[in-house]
Amino acid sequence: MVGLGYDVHRLAEGRPLVLAGVTIPSEKGAVAHSDGDVVFHALVDALLGAAALGDIGEWFPDTDARWKGASSTQFVEHTIGLLASHGLRVVNIDATLVLESPKISAFKQEMRENISRACQLPVQRVSVKATTSERIGFVGRGEGVEATVIVLIGTIEPR
Ligand SMILES: [Zn+2]
How far does the centroid of ligand 1 lie from the alpha carbon of residue 7, in Å? Predict the structure, then answer.
């Protein structure tokens, strides 16, 4: 089964910019209740979508004290556990990040490794790509960051 996830966050000065668990040096960061990690949020929605298990807002509501101050890495790990409990495992992940600045090419490998660890998946099965919005639209004006993630999941083979 395949699943697609999309997320966007507004950017503002003085906020940390966390992408796939990596804190990127930046003047602007995501405005959010959580760490505002668009890559991990889109990944959670892709995983839930592939398993037809709802969406991130249903599983990790802002109002739930259990998730107050939780990192988005914990959302991903919890979702992987949820899939496993349904007999499902991840086959591969492909993420695309759209951000005008700063350039994040130096951080892509670390992002892949963080996704790999959180999803218990070899790093060779994790792709992270990045592009800009050519200075047009809200991303192009530096007002936001967006991510799209597609995942393939399969069933866990009985031993
Ligand atoms: Zn989000």
Answer: 5
